[in-house]
Specification:
The protein contains 15 helices and 8 strands. By secondary structure, it is α/β, with parallel strands linked by helices. The protein has a 6-stranded mixed β-sheet.
């Protein structure tokens, strides 16, 4: 008989066996049959098992292998010490599974740490029947649910830890491919979009003070962490498409339906509960910015959109919709935006610089301090600063953004 790594066999009555042991036993009997050294009954007796377990376990393992072949998340160690493959009764959290998954996704997109406690708090707000449970029951339910969704706690890493030589090599491969892709294209038919956070205040912890001063007073405001999100788009010819600005608020609330209507027309506006670029906001950007730009292209031309590897940009629904418009989309490799993305390299920086100058001027002129208390600028004022900043960015600056990222052979 063919020998393989053995598992201790004891003739003790047992009611259940691990999948690991079942797989070992089936292999043991299969080898005996293949080498004609023993029958199913004899090999089963050697394992101290009833002979009919062999056929039963083969069916179970086939079911396990079919599960492993799917793309679905399997929440338990299906090839190790697990004794069953039934997932158990459905959790009451299944009713809000989509909402919880979206919440986790949006938080992780911003690099915010997510724990079981975070998920538990979201679930308590979304489902009243879960909210009335005891804390012990909530913790157990969330632990089972996040495991079933395929999440586990991990130590944080950063893209910056990636070796810069590998990043540069990935960037060279991408640029080599893009050179062939856009060599014969009109620069007006190629665009790059990226979003960047726009803070409401630009306080710094550094200031001028006399040498030897023990206490350095700096002013802060309650809006230090408040921000909007700006989606900036530039074409290969250096032209900036209309900006898309996302404020914090309900998508269909008062701010979105009434207040934003009175803002200047040189920008598109929207509201999102966290002021983030999520799937809904991305679709809105496509409607407001991308579709009109595509309609202005010459008939028969397949324009090109370059995006980074931000997860919303890579969602299947987003990619499929962009491609359905007749637009080709390519994604910059992760960690290479500082080498390959024009908006990130040449547009966001002058925007932030101009916004800082606008805010400082507003503060020094007294607009940002009332009764010796720092206040935050209004949404409308932030929008006006963005529009003024956009007007000050020339096409030459837009072209230089492409040149800085290695597209100089493409720019006229």
């Amino acid at each position: 008989m063919v020998h393989e790594t053995s598992i201790a066999i004891t003739p003790v009555s047992r009611k259940s066996f691990s999948l690991e042991f079942k797989r070992y036993a089936v292999r043991y009997i299969d080898n005996a049959l293949e080498n004609k050294t023993a029958s199913i009954t004899v090999a089963s007796d050697e394992l101290c098992l009833p002979h009919f377990y062999y056929a039963r376990w083969k069916k179970t393992l086939q079911k396990v292998d079919n599960l492993l072949a799917t793309n679905e998340v399997i929440a338990f160690r299906i090839n190790s010490g697990t004794r069953k493959i039934h997932p158990g009764r459905p959790s009451e959290l299944e009713a809000i599974r989509t909402g919880l998954s979206r919440s986790i996704f949006e938080l992780r997109e911003q690099g915010i740490q997510v724990s079981n406690r975070t998920v538990r708090n979201h679930a308590s707000r979304m489902l009243q029947s879960f909210n009335v449970k005891t804390m012990k029951a909530k913790k157990a339910s969330i632990a089972r649910f996040v495991k079933k969704m395929g999440y586990t706690h991990r130590i944080g890493t950063h893209v910056a830890q990636k070796n810069h030589k590998n990043t540069e090599e990935d960037a060279r491969h991408f640029m080599s491919y893009m050179r062939q892709k856009v060599a014969s294209m009109d620069p007006d038919d190629v665009i790059n979009m990226d979003q960047t956070p726009i803070p409401y205040s630009y306080h710094t912890s550094r200031t001028l003070a006399l040498k030897g001063t023990k206490t350095i007073h700096v002013r802060s405001s309650t809006s230090d962490t408040k921000r909007a999100t700006l989606a900036a788009t530039v074409s290969g010819s250096g032209k900036l498409l209309k900006p898309f600005l996302i404020f914090k608020g309900k998508t269909d609330g008062r701010i979105a339906s009434k207040e934003l209507q009175s803002y200047p027309d040189d920008c598109f506006y929207a509201c999102q509960p966290k002021a983030w670029m999520d799937e809904k906001m991305m679709n809105l950007w496509i409607d407001l910015v991308l579709v009109p730009w595509k309609d202005s292209r010459q008939p028969g031309v397949v324009p090109l959109l370059i995006l980074d590897a931000y997860r919303v940009h890579m969602m299947g629904s987003i990619i499929n919709r962009i491609q359905s418009l007749g637009i080709e989309v390519h994604h910059i490799p992760g960690g290479c935006t500082w080498l390959c993305q024009p908006v990130d390299v040449g547009i966001n920086r002058p925007i932030k610089k101009e916004m800082t100058e606008q805010w400082e001027k507003w503060m020094y002129d007294g607009g940002g301090v009332v009764d010796s208390v720092a206040k935050e600028p209004t949404r409308k004022l932030v929008a006006e600063w963005i529009i003024g900043t956009y007007r000050n960015i020339s096409e030459e600056t837009g072209k230089n953004a492409w040149k800085k990222t290695g597209y100089e052979w493409f720019i006229n």
